[in-house]
Design goal:
The protein has one domain (2-294). The protein is 80% helix and 1% strand. The chain contains 12 helices and 2 strands. It has helices spanning 2-25, 37-42, 46-68, 71-77, 81-92, 99-119, 130-153, 156-185, 189-194, 196-218, 221-244, 253-294, and strands spanning 122-123, 246-247. It has a two-stranded antiparallel ribbon.
Length: 302
């Protein structure tokens, strides 16, 4: 239960951070794509820095959730981030949501709950043999290189989706490394700060954040968000099962799990479309709010 609570808190903090980072990254010049100068541009935006603070809060909550529950349970809960992001963005944009969007919110939430209930993730450990880590890092690295290379060859929505999927892989790997690092904390501060997984978590997390910024800058949320949201959940489940030996219910339950994933995907696409419309509609109305936030005032207060 504790892991579920902190997973939900992680989703709420990440959703708030996503709104902040989106409004900071959308105006970045295209010449800064895949370049470190993108970060130099973003750190001058206070709203982006607020997003970074929320990301740190989310990381603390995520670490607590992973320390008390399986990866295959914790990470999929983060899908709740998408409807929360939409609700927050629409609120800031002073835009009401149509009935179809509310149905999508219900669909994603109910399907996620039903899917997790059907899969019933459980078991697993925290210790991972060095050989398993080597294979995991090689496979994850190969996947990232292939998806990033595909994104570089594409443009617009295709690039946004590819970079979103690459960011999802990075965040899933970050969670996998984080779980082992948190397990070392039980042995004391010394083992925690001396384990390589702790520093691997930082590297993977920064890399995933960089890919996410490029995804948001390359195209719309309709392309980026579903790839990020579903990709993170599914890749994390794969890591949980293959790396930590966590178990999912199969047999007759597998059909229900597949249907739940498909329904979540349909809902995520609709929510992303609505979120994109909210961002477009809110550009004028939010301009004062974002400017106010950058001047030290809360968003929505000019």
């Amino acid at each position: 239960m504790l892991s579920v609570v902190f997973a939900l808190l992680t989703a709420l903090a990440n959703g708030s951070a996503s709104v902040c980072q989106r409004y900071a990254a959308r105006d970045a010049p295209s010449s800064k794509a895949l370049h470190i100068s993108l970060f130099r541009y973003l750190v001058t935006r206070r709203v982006w820095l607020a997003g970074v603070v929320l990301t740190i809060v989310a990381a603390i909550c995520q670490a607590t959730a992973l320390a008390t529950g399986p990866v295959a349970l914790v990470q999929p809960i983060f899908i709740i981030e998408l409807p929360f992001t939409l609700l927050l963005a629409s609120r800031l944009a002073h835009r009401s949501l149509p009935r179809l969007t509310w149905l999508a919110v219900v669909l994603v939430t109910a399907s996620l709950g039903a899917g997790l209930a059907a899969a019933a993730p459980s078991g697993g450990g925290s210790y991972v043999a060095p050989g398993i880590w080597l294979i995991t890092l090689l496979v994850a690295g190969g996947f990232e290189l292939a998806v990033i290379a595909t994104g570089i060859r594409l443009s617009g929505e295709g690039r946004a989706a590819a970079f979103g999927l690459a960011a999802a892989g990075g965040y899933a790997l970050t969670a996998t490394l984080m779980k082992t690092a948190m397990a070392e904390l039980d042995r004391g501060i010394g083992p925690f700060f001396s384990c390589w997984q702790l520093y691997g978590t930082a590297v993977a997390g920064v890399g995933a954040l960089f890919l996410l910024q490029n995804s948001l800058q390359a195209g719309s949320l309709v392309a980026a968000q579903p790839a990020l949201t579903l990709g993170d959940a599914l890749i994390s489940v794969a890591f949980g099962v293959s790396v930590f030996g966590e178990s999912l219910r199969t047999g007759g339950w597998l059909a229900a799990e597949i249907v739940a994933v498909l329904l979540v995907g349909v809902g995520c696409v609709e929510l992303s479309r609505s979120l994109a419309r909210t961002h477009v509609a809110g550009e004028g109305g939010l301009a004062g709010g974002v400017a106010g936030a950058e001047a030290g005032h809360p968003p929505g207060v000019s």
